[in-house]
Design goal:
Length: 462
């Protein structure tokens, strides 16, 4: 099919097995990824239906959410059950599983690109919303629910309606003080947690081109916090270079095809949002959803910042949960814990940025700093580069394990009720990092600077 197509449309059309009566399409899935949460019931239902996994060779599983990251760490009872189930289910179906202790274990969205398994033009689905991360490689990748997991296990296809195309055009040059995380937060603050609902975001423009592939993953990762299904970035030299380092010479023939994975000039998007990167600086969340964030030199909102009584009521609820005063300068907010990690910011470049700020400095007294590599491979790389030394000299706890850790509190890494963290993860919902926990979403650089002073800080402040 020709014409002026968007990138999402190209990948979609390449994968339609057949249109369905209700207006959706039956889409072919190139790779199906699983983790231990949300999959046990899918396997139970599959067995109950008397079916088997159709393409174990196109299915991959990892252990990440429940995995302990400390020395001799243990899962809790629920975590152990889920771990045992994914092991039994994968063994019983011939599915490759990267379990705790395996050299390729880690957070699913970090491991898949690392292993060269996410390549331009593919469709990848996983039982996890942040599958959107892989869009940075020109892959149409999105999260699915347990029922859909069963369908994909059984058929390697998925009935689904095609989402709208939303172009996020990011012009200008991102200031040195800001990162892809800040871009993502600025976008979500602007369009809201529902601003991307029903759509796939394609990130475009010179500011996106200027980002490394890993930084593009950070941006695509947070697409779901704006309500989008997926994020996408067109393939360019940086993408091809990244893939070469991951796949060697294995896919040389595919390179011309990879390079077609961009929207045609003149392709029409259903919605367009413009953002000027030059206006984006370091940001921090003040509230209990990712859209409630502002420039770090700002103040927590007060009545005059709210357009309506209803907005003020919502704002007051978030402020109360977060233990902040209206109008409180964000730089005055003190934290107990700093967490660097997650599928948003747990890759090697994130650890390098963290180390560059921590180098020659100390974590403030009374502050606990947890650094958790997104994968075992990221951790090995960090050690090879000597980042582990920087972390330990600074007094940070660079965990021996890899996984979701304190992003989601489904393991032993948790905040106590009322505790406050600066965190490089992607969600600041009530209780996200432990019951009664308070989360401020920030970039790795801001996290590191905050660890040094014990209050929300940018590296430029040090
Ligand atoms: C546990 C999983 C289903 C969930 C997700 O879908 O994103 C988790 O990874 C999260 O980040 O909240
Ligand atoms: S690191 Fe956090 S956001 Fe990413 S998959 Fe794990 S729990 Fe979800």
């Amino acid at each position: 099919m020709t014409g002026h197509r968007t990138l999402a449309e190209k990948i979609w059309q390449d994968h339609v097995v057949r249109p369905l009566d209700d207006g959706s399409d039956l889409l072919y899935v190139d790779l199906h990824v699983l983790h231990e949460v949300n999959t046990p019931r899918a396997f139970d239902d599959l067995r109950a239906a008397g079916r088997t996994v159709r393409r174990p060779d196109l299915t991959l599983a990892v252990e990440d959410h429940n995995t302990p990251t400390g020395e001799g760490g243990r899962e809790d009872l629920a975590g152990r059950r889920q771990r045992d189930l994914i092991r039994a289910n994968c063994a019983g179906s011939g599915i490759r599983l990267h379990r705790l202790g395996d050299p390729d274990q880690g957070i699913v969205h970090v491991v898949v690109p690392e292993l060269g398994l996410a390549r331009p033009g593919m469709t990848i689905v996983c039982c996890d919303s942040h599958t959107s991360t892989l869009g940075a490689l020109g892959v149409l990748a999105f999260g699915i629910g347990t029922g859909q997991v069963e369908h994909v296990l059984a058929t390697q296809t998925l009935p689904i309606h095609r989402p709208d195309d939303l172009a996020v055009e990011i012009s200008g040059v991102l200031p040195d003080s800001a990162t892809a995380k800040d871009l993502a937060l600025a976008l979500i603050a602007r369009i809201g947690t529902g601003g991307g609902r029903g759509s796939v975001i394609e990130y475009r423009g010179e500011a996106v081109r200027a980002l490394s592939v890993e930084a593009r993953m950070t941006l695509c990762n947070m697409s779901v916090e704006a309500g989008s299904r997926a994020g996408l970035v067109a393939v360019d030299d940086a993408t091809v270079h990244y893939l070469r380092t991951r796949t060697g010479a294995r896919f040389t023939d595919a390179e011309p095809r990879w390079r077609e994975m961009r929207s045609d000039d003149g392709a029409r998007f259903d919605h367009v949002v413009h953002l000027d990167a030059a206006q984006v600086g370091p940001r921090v969340s003040w509230g209990t959803n990712p859209a409630q964030n502002l420039p770090l030199d700002g103040r927590a909102p007060s009545r005059s910042d709210c357009a309506t009584e209803q907005e003020w009521a919502t704002t007051q609820r978030s402020l109360a949960y977060m233990g902040l005063r209206p109008g409180q300068p964000m730089r005055d907010v003190e934290v107990d814990t700093v967490f660097v990690g997650s599928c948003t910011n747990g890759r090697i470049e994130d650890l390098r940025e963290t180390a560059s700020v921590l180098s020659g400095r100390k974590v403030a007294d009374g502050v606990r700093m947890l650094i958790v590599a997104g994968s075992a491979a990221v951790r090995r790389q960090a050690v090879a580069e000597g980042l582990d030394r920087v972390f330990s000299v600074a007094g940070a706890d660079f965990r021996p394990g890899a996984g979701c850790s304190m992003c989601c509190a489904l393991n032993e890494d948790r905040l106590a009720p009322g505790e406050r963290a600066a965190s490089t993860s992607n969600r600041n919902f009530e209780g996200r990092q432990g019951k009664g926990s308070r989360t401020h979403l920030v970039s790795p650089r801001v996290a590191a600077a905050t660890a040094v002073t014990g209050r929300i800080t940018t590296p430029q402040d040090l």
